[in-house]
Amino acid sequence: MPETSSRHTESSLLRKWLEQYDEVRSQTLNLVEPLSPEDQMVQSMPDASPAKWHIAHTTWFFETFILTPHMEGYAPFNARFGFLFNSYYKRLGGHPHRTIRGTLSRPTLDQVRLYRAHVDNSIHELLHCGASVEVLRLLELGLNHEQQHQELIVTDIKHAFWVNPLRPGYQPGQVRIVEASAAPPLAWCCFDGGIHESGHDSCGFAFDNELPRHYTYINPFRIASRLVTNKEYLAFMADGGYSRAELWLSDAWDHVCENGWTAPLYWEQAGNDWTQFTCRGMLPLNPAEPVCHVSFYEADAFARWAGARLPHRVRMGGCRRFHREHRQNIRESAGKRKLSSQAACPGSTTG
Amino acid sequence: MPETSSRHTESSLLRKWLEQYDEVRSQTLNLVEPLSPEDQMVQSMPDASPAKWHIAHTTWFFETFILTPHMEGYAPFNARFGFLFNSYYKRLGGHPHRTIRGTLSRPTLDQVRLYRAHVDNSIHELLHCGASVEVLRLLELGLNHEQQHQELIVTDIKHAFWVNPLRPGYQPGQVRIVEASAAPPLAWCCFDGGIHESGHDSCGFAFDNELPRHYTYINPFRIASRLVTNKEYLAFMADGGYSRAELWLSDAWDHVCENGWTAPLYWEQAGNDWTQFTCRGMLPLNPAEPVCHVSFYEADAFARWAGARLPHRVRMGGCRRFHREHRQNIRESAGKRKLSSQAACPGSTTG
Amino acid sequence: MPETSSRHTESSLLRKWLEQYDEVRSQTLNLVEPLSPEDQMVQSMPDASPAKWHIAHTTWFFETFILTPHMEGYAPFNARFGFLFNSYYKRLGGHPHRTIRGTLSRPTLDQVRLYRAHVDNSIHELLHCGASVEVLRLLELGLNHEQQHQELIVTDIKHAFWVNPLRPGYQPGQVRIVEASAAPPLAWCCFDGGIHESGHDSCGFAFDNELPRHYTYINPFRIASRLVTNKEYLAFMADGGYSRAELWLSDAWDHVCENGWTAPLYWEQAGNDWTQFTCRGMLPLNPAEPVCHVSFYEADAFARWAGARLPHRVRMGGCRRFHREHRQNIRESAGKRKLSSQAACPGSTTG
Amino acid sequence: MPETSSRHTESSLLRKWLEQYDEVRSQTLNLVEPLSPEDQMVQSMPDASPAKWHIAHTTWFFETFILTPHMEGYAPFNARFGFLFNSYYKRLGGHPHRTIRGTLSRPTLDQVRLYRAHVDNSIHELLHCGASVEVLRLLELGLNHEQQHQELIVTDIKHAFWVNPLRPGYQPGQVRIVEASAAPPLAWCCFDGGIHESGHDSCGFAFDNELPRHYTYINPFRIASRLVTNKEYLAFMADGGYSRAELWLSDAWDHVCENGWTAPLYWEQAGNDWTQFTCRGMLPLNPAEPVCHVSFYEADAFARWAGARLPHRVRMGGCRRFHREHRQNIRESAGKRKLSSQAACPGSTTG
């Protein structure tokens, strides 16, 4: 994103910011494009939110933190929305209990889109008159915040459609059958220990919990050269993975028994084969793809079975660049971030 | 409703049945007319259902019990709807857990309305070729079943809109300010004891749990000449009704304390006055109207406070005709049936 | 129990009352005799109470309702016990939440027994000086109340020992192997309809909910000549009783599925045979005995399977005398009362 | 504890081990000495265990991991205890659900003490014949395991007695009134950053999660010279600490509101003063003592209020020696370990 340097930045810079703003904001609307107003109402569990709520809440952010305090004479689009679409900022004065987000049929989707348009127009108007460094900082924060919610929209709608017995596809028009090519052979990558810089470096945006830049010490370790594949996970299952108490943490085993776990979330057996719920509906499981939507408990049990253990987060950071180059076979965005931090890397050991 | 007498009834009779059918079915659509597709998705608690589910489930009834078994060559509109819109008839093979009715964005409202139209057309087609007594019996049952769900649509949407912090009105266009006239003075009506016939008599429709006709013995009693008014209930509240343990059943008192009850459901204090959530939004409480939406626990506590007790159901039956003549001041349908069986009739005593 | 006639009754009458008092009170202690202080601490579910609590609470009754208001100069044994051993009389000022009764290691069992002795002595002292009709009425109520809790002691300790994986026997010394004789053949007893007097008649003690004496009308009916046997219930199970949704109420079927019910409470399969947890530990199931510890849902499903239905309570009253004469084969007190009101009487029909 | 060097260690070494064993084992019995059999039954919440369970489970450890596999001809004291007193080692074949530990009146306390004596005798017998390095390693592990449970016995009985409305004292005989002297003034201790060795060093016992020895990097920081006092925490409360949403994490604030938190666990207001539940019953709060039994949420809110933040665990390790020298004013063991890792150190900052 563009650099911010002076109190009132030049118009060319502001134009770039507005382009960026429009791009992020329209990407959100692109994501909900395949969804009906009814689809955008669904809250399938307390931890998920309806798509309509996401598009309202991300708008609330710009109104609450930029327009209201920084635009002279700005009047909120609707006096109740400040309460309705606050997520959890208690100091702003409360919000509906998060479990009832799925019951908010009013405001309607149309009203929420008018709210978006109103706020977008006001942001344009504000920036056309110049903007302080603080406003640009908040704008950048708001856009990154909105991108987080874009991920949640996909994650949440996937779960919403999974709960529906009809198992509709979120993007059914985009189906593309991919040949199940083999994953590359697994190798071990060695990393030397040593002092390592962690946290965000100074250039570009960072959330506050990515700062400050600091040192950590990483002990020498080896890590798998790629993510665990569905095929490898199926081998764990075939070897009784879900019925051998000794592979699981004690708490995890209680979960397995109480919830009758026999496979990862979104997997379903169809005859002898396995299928997987995706954004394009139920599809055959591709054995070459990375295993996805496993919980920490499952990843941990898999790693124990494989004679390895899960990498620490700090090591994941150290070898993230490596993985980035090997992710060309990952085609679906939902759950990927989770996967990269939770997947079991078989055979990882410390020196 | 028309009488059914021979195996294949005459066309004039069938015409009357179809008129009846069309009238009940269109009344359901009239009820959801003020609601958006989003409104028809809301399930505000496990015991309530979304309006869309109601209009689908009542259609499912006609398809499942009439068209599929009795219309030759009938193919279900959608093979999955038999499961989706079954309420709790386990012998028909399962249904979604009732708590997830509010997540079913698919089928869409449009699809559900096509489903209704398809079934309506098929019912017309079936009856145009004549109908057996059994089909007409099921038709009558289905229409009464649909009328039950019409009551639920109103009850459920009222609660759905109450949960929404915006408190929208279900029928906002129909607001009509009514003068708060005084209720008639309360008198005591005496009933002699004796053998009393109970259950439905032979003419017209009855649900199976209203049969068979049988005798009961009613001991002599007195009952109030009208329902308890909001004004009388306010007197109970002003006298510490919700803070005096001795007025409540032990279980009830636990409920009062754990849930912080201080007034009936849908009541809200506005300054010194009370308002009440209605199908037309929040309105001032009319002191002359019957108190509404009180739980059994509250009715029982009120009756104890008033030195009376709640009437047995069988006595309510005995004096229902009486009350019917005094209900001219009742203007809102939701919750009325509940009220008539739960309201405290002060001073009722057995001889 | 003795009659009470004048304000200050004669000493011979009071002696009889004291004998009665001593008999009931010592019967309670007899019931807990086989139990260690630890056994008397167990609360295996919120609806059950520890034996120690029962023996304290029954004592609390006499102290609270007789000694404190009616004995001049009486000082409570312990000022905190009024709160600790109140069950649910809110107007007396609160009580511990019923779910924590099992955590009250203090007062100790020894202290509770001293409490009993203190109250017993005081009751003797009070009655030696004469007693008003009101005191005798309360004494009679207290003794009947204590007998109710005697039943609960047995019911609750049975459940407490069932939850313990060791399945200890409550009265292990009293084991007596009974020959599994056949139950008498089932016949149908016809009862004419008509007006029937219900509620307690004037002589002897009655709880307030057994009054007043009133008329009811019973329609003519037939009822089975004896209770359903274990053998008959086993036939229901062998015929797939627990896996056929059509035999169960819809709510009941949800219970069956969610809790994995396959047999009545306290039954356990041992190889091909069934055993039953009793007050003397696990014993072979006697096919000739009445089935016991079935829930309403199970009794209802059994009755439907048998082509019959459950008797109304009022009919049970009508034929109670009949059953009393056929209960000679019932050897265990726990759960019997429940059984008699819930057991399915196959083939009962109304005329 | 003594060093273990050869396969069959010398008798003087074994004697030292047995002394150590006897000392730890008898310390456990000393801890339960003030408790009646009933007290040792109480489980006041799912995360706590009855004292009787602790003394049985620690015995189970020695039987399961030492006697059964390593002592020829050893027969378990009771075949069911292996299941009954397993805590969560699933691979050993299951255990009772942890929520029912408080219902296990059988085995009795007497039987559990016989179990202890039997295992103690067998351990003595085993070691008198020499012991392998593996047996001594397990013995050391078992003794450390038992010391962990000694802490839990005190923690759990404190909570058990707190739940009891009588609030009994665990060690009432040991009351000693301490003058409320002032805490030393708070200063800031600076620590340089750098590579730091973490994990247990090679000599002496360590649990497996304290290994292996590894390097970490600690950034420079300052930390308070002593723990937060009750007086400082009272200032936070007086300044509206529990009613200012902005001081709390969002989740924390939900907890505060839903549970009505207004003070730390075990605190109770008595008029204008505060009292605190201790192992000697309710005592006046000593303002000079470290605040105790605050949750992470409370510690975090306090730190935010104080303009500081909570120390990372690794920094706590770094300055543990420092604190150890300043703990002379800590007089009560329960909760101390928790305190040291959770207490807010006002003003700690990273360089």
UniProtKB/TrEMBL annotation, chains A, B, C, D:
Keywords: Iron, Oxidoreductase. Signal peptide: none annotated. GO terms for cellular component: membrane. InterPro entries: CTDL_fold, DinB-like, EgtB, SRCR, Sulfatase_Mod_Factor_Kinase, SUMF_dom, SUMF_sf. Residues 340-351 have a biased composition (Polar residues). Residues 330-351 are annotated as: Disordered. Residues 225-282 form the SRCR domain. GO terms for biological process: ergothioneine biosynthetic process. This is Ergothioneine biosynthesis protein EgtB. It comes from Nitrosospira briensis.
